[in-house]
Design a protein that fits this description.
The protein is an alpha+beta fold. The protein is built from ten helices and 14 strands.
């Protein structure tokens, strides 16, 4: 569960980062908003102070300088000066609805709230009370009164409230993180079972419900495909076994009769020659059937390996000597080169199958070069526990299509060549954990280990 622990830790770190970022962003936003509020309030106070400084009295009349009018037009929509008795003694752009005397009660009300929905700012001057208004709906005013004790209590509660909120958020983060972790653990078990080709049925709920549904569907699909492949492979194996069994009896009769005819002195030489050809071709059919059965068993791991210790140098000498003992044509030569360093190496494997694999490779070089060639078989050390076997000839070489077919790179448009012998050899080496490659068209290389994982 290391991977999911890492996911959970990253999830928690991301949540904490989001929490810290949100907290600092809100603090920053609060400071900006408060600054704008204070700045807006200070503007009104600053402008009305500038206007009040530009007021003057000439011949008993209050007048405003040009600079005062400039300040007034820049920030206010109307203004007036009230006397101590509440009479209007000067005004600017004052609406007709506001042209009336004002009582002390009226002044107390609009100094805290609004004057007919106009937000107003007041300033006492030596000529009277200067009242200036801004546009309706441009300023929000609220009058709050509270005891000093409550204000102090509020400031003391802010850190406590923040701490409680932080603890609550951390609890929720860990709670949902653990739930997410448990959901991921169920998914991990499902993926692990899928990798082992085991059917799964995950609960389709929670944050991972969609993934669980998809994994369940994948499991059902893989199970159907596996059953279909098993049925196909069973049918193929049964068919090959049945055909081989049905052919074996009549083929044995043909080979027996052909052998008798070949030895019958009453027949002419030509008739005995034809009987010999029949026997030889029947023997080839027998070998093909054996190869077909063997490759089928190897492909489906039905061929038991009879593991025993052997020396690769001794095995190769035996294979090469068998070719000469069976009457190798004078047109063909087999050269054997063995590294003295591997002379005493001991391997583990099925010597019968390995003998057949090496015989197939050497036999291919001989069969596909009827005009003669030299087959070179070498074996040398490749590390302390590895040996490199190499079989090459100076004949026509391996067709490109054969190499592509064995390596799985043959295109669908190309006709697959007959490679039963090479296929069996490759399967035998693979069953031993060895690797067969083609460095070039003239060479086959096999790398094997003395202790394969069988």
């Amino acid at each position: 569960m290391k991977h999911f622990s890492k996911i959970l830790s990253r999830y928690l770190l991301s949540a904490l980062f989001i929490l810290a970022f949100t907290l600092f962003f809100n603090i920053f936003l609060y400071v900006i908003i408060e600054y704008r509020v204070i700045q807006s309030t200070n503007h009104a106070v600053s402008y009305i102070r500038s206007v009040a400084e530009e007021l003057d009295q000439t011949d008993g009349q209050i007048v405003l300088s040009e600079d005062g009018y400039h300040h007034m037009q820049e920030y206010f929509v109307w203004a007036m000066v009230l006397s101590d008795t509440g009479e209007i003694i000067w005004d600017w752009n004052l609406p007709d609805s506001l042209r009336r005397p004002y009582t002390s009660r009226d002044i107390a009300v609009f100094s805290k709230w609004y004057l007919e929905d106009y937000p107003v700012t007041e300033r006492i001057t030596e000529y009277g009370l200067l009242v200036a208004a801004q546009e309706k709906g441009s300023i929000w005013k609220m009058n709050i009164n509270d005891s000093v004790e409550n204000i102090r209590y509020l400031f003391h509660m802010i850190p406590t409230t923040l701490f409680v909120n932080l603890v609550m958020i951390l609890f929720l983060v860990f709670f949902f993180g653990i739930r997410f972790y448990r959901s991921l653990r169920v998914l991990e078990q499902g993926i692990l079972h899928l990798s082992k080709q085991m059917p799964i049925r995950l609960p389709e709920k929670g944050m991972t419900a969609l993934l669980a549904t998809q994994l369940n569907q994948t499991s059902d699909l893989l199970l159907k495909q596996r059953n279909a492949l098993k049925q196909r492979d069973d049918a193929r194996t049964a068919w090959i076994s049945g055909v081989s069994h049905d052919i074996r009896t009549p083929l044995s009769l043909i080979m027996g009769y052909a052998s008798d005819l070949k030895e019958d002195a009453s027949l002419t030489n030509e008739q005995r020659r034809l009987a010999g050809i029949m026997e030889h071709q029947s023997l080839k059919i027998k070998h093909l059937i054996e190869d077909l059965n063997l490759t089928s068993r190897l492909e489906y791991h039905m061929q038991p390996l009879r593991i025993a210790e052997f020396k690769p140098c001794k095995l190769l000498r035996s294979v090469v000597s068998d070719f000469y003992n069976q009457g190798l044509s004078s047109l063909h030569i087999i050269d054997l080169y063995l590294d003295p360093g591997i002379e005493q190496k001991v391997f583990q494997g099925d010597t019968a199958l390995l003998t057949r694999a090496f015989s197939n490779l050497i036999g291919n070089s001989i069969r596909h070069n009827p005009k003669g060639c030299t087959v070179t078989v070498t074996a040398c050390a490749k590390g302390p526990d590895w040996v490199c076997f190499q079989i090459s000839d100076d004949g026509c070489g391996i067709p490109k299509a054969v190499i592509q077919s064995l390596s799985g790179t043959l295109s669908d448009t190309q006709k697959a060549p007959h490679i039963m012998g090479l296929r069996i050899a490759e399967q035998i080496f693979q069953a031993h954990g060895w690797e067969m490659t083609f460095p070039d068209r003239q060479t086959i290389q096999i790398v094997g280990t003395s202790t394969p994982a069988l």
